[in-house]
Amino acid sequence: MLSVEEALTAILAGAQLTPGEQVSLDRCAGRVPVDRRLRADVDVPPFASSAMDGFALRAADVPGELPVTGEVAAGGGLPPMLSPGSAVRIMTGAPVPAGADAVVPIEDANEVAGRVRLPAVTAGSHVRPAGNDIRAGDVVELPAAPLGPAAIAVLASLGMGELAVHRRPRVAILSTGDELIEPGQPLGPGQIPDANTFSLAAAVTEAGGEPELLPRVPDDEARTEAAIRSATGYADLLVASGGVSVGRYDHVRSAIERLGSLDFWRIAVQPGKPLAFGRIGGRPVIGLPGNPVSALVTFELFVRPLIRAMVGLSGSGRAVLPARCDEEIAKDPGRRAYLRVAVERSGAAYVARSAGGQGSAQSSTLALANALLVVPEGEPATRPGATYDAVVIGGLT
Ligand code: AMP
Ligand code: MG
């Protein structure tokens, strides 16, 4: 059995970047730029503007009373030059007239009959100089993360209506098992709704990929092989679930072996020991265990980082916190466990409580967990009072 690190290293080793595509700004959220370093062609803001509603003037002319000679609003074009010894009414975002070097907020001014009484100000007060945020010629570095609202504000301010981003990796999802039926259909004897097709599709989307839901296949060797062959013809990655263990109807692993090459199929992780990884025609194929919790936890550990690597991001993008566990939660001593816990702030520390049953088929407790508590190989259970790494997978309040 491989360790979690060994398996992840092997999976990431051949990761191929997806090509770039031009995407309009309104579609950039969550995408990853091909080039994080952008050269600014313009100053942001492009002109010196007022940060307040008030009066623009020369600092040298106040305190005192000045005639109000005009008005300048945001978007109203360039104002005439300010004559010494006068003031103009100015709105937030309006260009500061040449000749003026300060703005007095309206709250501090007293305007009567075309004249305004103004207190002393220092030059530069409430004036946002051109290039105050970004200067033309600067290299702007975007964060190594999917584009969020603030990065999109920067792109817009730089006048970029579109951007080259990595194409979302196309991830084909294949569930295998005779017992699986479409959720919502009446259950026959021995049947269960297919959870993994839908949970894994959601996980692919969350990781930044484009899920493609393939029709389920029964535990049939030829049909399993045909589905895998066809998907690896076009998808950037195939994620199958079920059929990777040693049961006599487990055909995914052997299909990978026949169609391409199998790198490994067991990892010392709980949940999720059987996990097949290989390549077919150069494309990565991952066979996850069928149990819904095992499938999602191993996706988190191995597939999510691969999807991110395909768009140039490293790691899992998850926060890891030290969390104290006051309970004794049993685990397999031979494997590293990722236990479902609810992590909460308690004073200056974080405390992890078991989210409930830790069985591989108990999805309801994974849905309640906001973190996975990492308990090392070699330990038979959590030690009450000990602190472990908690990988944050959900909202932490
Ligand atoms: P397997 O890995 O095929 O041996 O499946 C292990 C367990 O996971 C069995 O109890 C299966 O019924 C269950 N299982 C497999 N695939 C799915 C799926 N897509 N949705 C829900 N349960 C599944
Ligand atoms: Mg099965």
Features:
397 residues, alpha/beta, six-stranded mixed beta sheet, 7 helices, 31% strand, binds adenosine monophosphate, binds magnesium ion
Note down, in words, how this protein is organized.
It is a single chain. This protein is α/β, with parallel strands linked by helices. Helix content is 19%, strand content 31%. The protein contains seven helices and 26 strands. The strands form seven sheets. The chain has a six-stranded mixed β-sheet with strand order 7-4-6-5-9-8, with no helix packed on it. Helix 3 runs parallel beside helix 6. The longest helix is centred in the C-terminal third of the chain and has 18 residues. The chain is elongated. The site of adenosine monophosphate (AMP) has 19 residues, from helix 3.
What distance separates the N and C termini? 37 Å
The number of helices is 7
Shape: elongated
Average pLDDT for all residues: 97
Share of residues in helices:
10-25%
What small molecules does this complex bind? Answer: adenosine monophosphate, magnesium ion
Q: Walk across the major sheet and give the strand order.
A: 7-4-6-5-9-8
Largest sheet: 6 strands, mixed
Computed Rg? 30 Å
Let me know the number of strands.
Answer: 26
Content-based structural category: alpha/beta
Indicate the low-confidence ranges by residue numbers: none
* Proportion of residues in β-strands: 25-35%
